Amino acid sequence: MLGRDGQATLRIGDSKDPVLKPWAAKEMLASNEEALSGKRDVPFAAQARCYPGGVPGQLLYPAEPFYFVQTPKVVYMIWQRDHMVRRIFMTDKHSANLKPAWFGESIGRYENGALVVDTIGLLGPGKMSFIDNFRTPHTEKLHVVERFKLAADGGLEAVARVEDPDTFNEPLTMMQRWRRVPNELIETVCAENNSDFFNQNLFPIPEAAKPDF
């Protein structure tokens, strides 16, 4: 992220926020110090280096559009950036045994005009998954409930309640709003030409250990 003078604008999180457990505050402080010392010009931002943003972090990516596709059994959230897809299964029960994943397992229902999404099964510490762009960490106990509804101005509003008893001393509430724009879903491949042009010592783009075929 560049400021008006062309220099990188640092994302510095509040490591002294009393909502953070000591281990989480320590991780955020270390990330801040990396940036402030010049070791890394900008803290980790998932989508900037081709990682999924996780839940609710993916909702914070504002530069490109995303779409909802509603079907009776599954609601799809599709981001233009790297064509990332999150699936919301329209059922009332989570799976018995979940393998942690970037977007976890989301189940949904409609309630008073809102789409209510309950998500668990998210990646834990050390997996480059954070709840926001300030590198706020979480554990595999992360539980997120989002409510998506149309706003009075015709846009979309989401309110997310974030709980993780091993990371936060109390639940967090976040809000994000979007406006409706005429925009076609175009091809945007994150890994193409995504180099460290400004020598910021960015986090590496993820690469598979072996080919898929």
Describe, in plain words, how this protein is organized in 3D.
With 213 residues, this protein is mainly β. It has a domain at 52-178: Lipocalin (Beta Barrel). The protein is 8% helix and 25% strand. It contains 1 helix and 8 strands, in the order αββββββββ. It has an 8-stranded mixed β-sheet with strand order 1-2-3-4-5-6-7-8, with no helix packed on it. The protein starts with 21 loop residues before the first helix and ends in a 35-residue tail after the last strand. Mean pLDDT is 86; it is low at 1-5.
In brief, what are we looking at here?
The protein is built from 1 helix and 8 strands. The chain is mostly beta strands and 213 residues long. It is globular.
Keywords, please?
mainly beta, 213 residues, eight-stranded mixed sheet, disordered N terminus, single chain
Number of strands: 8
Reported CATH architecture of one domain: Beta Barrel
Major sheet: arrangement of strands: 1-2-3-4-5-6-7-8
Name the helicity range: under 10%
Work out the strand percent.
Answer: 15-25%
Separate helix tally: 1
Oligomer: single chain
Main β-sheet description: 8 strands, mixed
The coarse overall form would be globular
Mean pLDDT figure: 86
The computed structural class is: mainly beta
| Terminal CA distance | 36 Å
